[in-house]
């Protein structure tokens, strides 16, 4: 009898221990183990919120560069809230960019369990956020999206590249794409047509380098080269023009592009100050008539028109064995913690291809990602926007690695300067750039 009582007591205690163990697991934060029935599980709550029910409220964090843009975003939010047919309400919360501090604020909030449903975003932050499981995978949303084809496949590939995977975690919104500025009057003087190939571009640089009064001094340099920090972006177009790439900068093709770049300096087709010229210098040289061409984006187009009127235009960097130009970006992300991901996707898709896309890109002067919006007269009749849009199908980004910041700020400008001045060979320069980026 005592043995029977002891076995019965042991059985009761065992059941109690299993129950306690189950309770501990369900509170551990592991969603797959949350199988209790006494309270709704986190996955049950998410499924209900994502069922497309009307009336969802989502928070949206964003930054705005000025008061005009801030007001425009609030107008877009108001319009979406009033016109969407699912009763979704977006609550916009503006935060300062703060020299990139915005991304740190966003990361800290998300890691702490707070933060918004949706946020404006920079691609360079993607690896950190994805590695910590903070961003929602958008693959299924985009696959089922009627407007998927309204965005160039190249842009989806850039989003994947940023994540370091075959998955899309970032929703395209608006971009800035580098193109070549040129002076039509100087092209006419040099009897040069707008180049349509990489080889023609190199020839145009040579021919628009002018000694107008035959005194042995160059009056106009064909190209405004940016050898200081930030110059890695236009430089990349030369590397790809010969069929090279950032993946392996030591290939014969990549080195050939580097040799082209160095040759422009050695032959005197660019200002002798190119080794230290940054953004301010290349823009000042172009505006003063010292250079016939330089590379930038629509952010400087207004001042170019103010300076030259109709005597300034642009063309997309032309193709050679390969083709590439640099893309700046501002995108959007949905957070994995959001309980209203379907409503959140309605909002980010409205910004990507809906009325919000049109209104925001017109207001800010950024390049739209929607093909329908790109086709509007407002963009097609703007020669600088047209050059940007022409480059959209091959625009890209540098690899986003732990080493990228130092490489951009220090390694690239120092290595390029040494190569331009002949202290190291193009081969040595490219080996250094490869080793330092992928170390």
From TrEMBL:
Segments of skewed composition (Low complexity): 26-49
Which Pfam families does this entry report, sorted A to Z? SBP_bac_8
Coiled-coil residue windows: none
The UniProt keyword set, sorted, is: Signal
Question: Can the keyword Ion transport be found in this entry's annotation?
Answer: no
Q: Which residues form the signal peptide?
A: 1-19
Q: Does the keyword Protease apply?
A: no
The cross-references to SUPFAM superfamilies, in alphabetical order and at most eight, read: Periplasmic binding protein-like II
Q: Which PROSITE patterns match?
A: PROKAR_LIPOPROTEIN
Quick one: where's region Disordered? Answer: 24-52
Q: Which domain of life is it from?
A: Bacteria
- Name assigned to this protein: Sugar ABC transporter substrate-binding protein
């Amino acid at each position: 009898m005592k043995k029977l009582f002891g076995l019965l007591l042991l059985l009761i205690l065992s059941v109690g221990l299993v129950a306690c163990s189950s309770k501990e697991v369900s509170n551990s934060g592991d969603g797959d183990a949350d199988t209790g029935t006494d309270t709704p599980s986190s996955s049950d709550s998410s499924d209900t919120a994502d069922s497309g029910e009307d009336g969802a409220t989502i928070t949206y964090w964003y930054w705005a560069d000025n008061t005009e843009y801030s007001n425009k975003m609030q107008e877009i939010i108001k319009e979406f809230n009033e016109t969407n047919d699912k009763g979704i309400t977006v609550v916009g919360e503006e935060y300062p960019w703060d020299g990139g501090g915005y991304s740190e604020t966003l990361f800290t909030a998300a890691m702490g369990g707070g933060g918004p449903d949706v946020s404006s975003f920079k691609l360079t932050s993607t690896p950190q956020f994805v590695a910590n499981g903070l961003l929602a995978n958008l693959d299924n949303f985009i696959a089922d999206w009627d407007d998927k084809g309204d965005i160039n496949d190249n842009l989806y590939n850039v989003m994947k590249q940023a994540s370091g995977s075959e998955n899309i975690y970032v929703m395209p919104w608006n971009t800035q794409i580098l193109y070549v500025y040129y002076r039509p009057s100087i092209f006419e003087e040099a009897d040069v047509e707008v180049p349509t190939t990489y080889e023609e571009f190199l020839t145009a640089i040579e021919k628009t380098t002018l000694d107008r009064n035959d005194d042995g001094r160059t009056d106009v340099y064909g190209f405004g080269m940016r050898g200081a920090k930030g110059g890695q972006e236009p430089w990349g177009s030369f590397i790809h023009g010969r069929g090279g790439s950032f993946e392996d900068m030591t290939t014969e093709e990549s080195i050939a592009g580097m040799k082209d770049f160095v040759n422009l300096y050695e032959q005197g087709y660019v200002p002798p100050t190119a080794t230290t010229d940054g953004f301010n210098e290349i823009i000042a040289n172009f505006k003063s008539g010292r250079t016939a061409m330089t590379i930038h984006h629509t952010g400087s187009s207004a001042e170019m028109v103010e300076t030259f009127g109709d005597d300034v235009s642009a063309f997309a960097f032309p193709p050679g064995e390969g083709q590439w130009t640099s893309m700046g970006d501002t995108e959007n992300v949905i957070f994995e913690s959001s309980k209203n991901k379907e409503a959140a996707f309605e909002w980010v898709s409205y910004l990507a291809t809906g009325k919000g896309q049109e209104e925001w890109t017109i207001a800010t002067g950024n390049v739209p990602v929607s093909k329908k919006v790109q086709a509007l007269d407002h963009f097609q009749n703007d020669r600088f926007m047209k050059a940007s849009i022409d480059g959209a199908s091959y625009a890209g980004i540098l690899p986003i690695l732990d080493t990228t910041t130092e490489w951009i700020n220090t390694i690239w400008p120092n290595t390029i300067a040494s190569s331009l001045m002949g202290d190291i060979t193009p081969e040595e320069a490219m080996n250094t750039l490869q080793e330092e980026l992928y170390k």
